[in-house]
Amino acid sequence: MGLDINELKNDEGVSYLAGNSVPKGSIPIAQAYAGHQFGYFTMLGDGRALLLGEQIIPDGMRYDIQLKGSGRTPYSRGGDGRAALGPMLREYIVSEAMHALNIPTTRSLAVVTTGEPVIRERLLKGSILTRVASSHIRVGTFEYALNFGTAENIKQLADYTINRHYREITNDENKYFSLLKEVIKRQASLIAKWQLIGFIHGVMNTDNMVLSGETIDYGPCAFMDAYNPDTVFSSIDTYGRYAYKNQPKIAVWNLSRLAETLVPLFNENKEHAIKLAQDAVAEFYELYHNHWISGMRSKLGIFNEEADDEKLVEELLNLMQKNNEDYTNTFIKLTFNDTFVNETAEFKEWHNKWQARLQRQAQTKEESFELMQNSNPAVIPRNHRVEEALRAADEKEDYSVMEHLISILNKPFAHTADQKEYAELPPPSLCKYKTYCGT
Ligand code: AMP
Ligand code: MG
To answer: How many contiguous H segments (helices) and E segments (strands) does the chain have?
Structure first.
């Protein structure tokens, strides 16, 4: 980023990261935004975050540097504006793992403890995460402009977004419509990546979807273990609105909210403008599906296309679900092909079908193997491993567990021997893994 790590680690640097002083030239702001939370519109805003400023990195890209957990702002409502160590380290670990998995995401530059307690169900260690993002322009930012601003404000926001993220459409005849289409494309690609890796965001409210196409706001997110499309981890997602299988649908729902804000800019004829928006949003499914099936082919070592490939994938997923097989590890077993996923006749039959399918392409077995290694991660941030790292950090101030975990998660496609242990499943537990929001 063009930042000097050693300077960030000295007293002055740490005081910036802790929000105790402000770097020269920075004018911190809390951003206003609104959004639909679990389907209901509400006014939100940076209630516990502060944008320190933007950093233009050596390659010319511009990044927001934001403190999360730095105290109250005008948008804090009843909240204290603070964050606890566990959830901030959790965002650190998972966002960095997502980056290593080649999934667009905000990054984590630092976590510091503040030395002050935060009051939750019990006293926790106050902490601040420094988040780096291509921007924090959310679907909810546009909803804010629509509901609390003027038509001119929406235009300004759209122009700003185009200039920051979609310069290639600046000269398009209907650039605001192009903006919607481009955002849809990036989200279709992003959500397909989530599905392919088994990532469940957990709180896909419109304020947690950004126009840059990065994954943002690692609150109650978690990775699916045994394949089950109904998987939900978040304690507050009672009805499974944000379950694994619903993520593409919810993306469409959120993009529809974005489209509503842009419609007035598309065409003077309102009906025509709405039709344009509807058609663009409806295209999401095909875009998403193309990314998904192409990703699935890669996960199975398939290079060419056959009409029945989707059926082959669906059969595998159904078998995984029926047999309670781990999603990530099933693909690892297939990649290293030393055994069947399990010994049931159905799995063996599927395996033979898949092997026969691999014969119907020009590429060699070795090429398939290589494709599979690069498409199937050896490790994901398994919930019990993340918890173990957080416990050591929080209870014993022992950060070595976390640092080792991050080093393992850093190269998910390397398939090294020391990753094996991190691919193992937790011992059976009576309690279902649960995640919590805004903690
Ligand atoms: P999130 O769940 O992080 O997406 O946050 C949803 C909304 O709640 C955002 O507007 C946050 O700024 C706000 N929020 C979350 N935690 C706090 C807190 N401790 N104090 C004030 N606002 C908060
Ligand atoms: Mg949020």
So the answer is: 16, 9
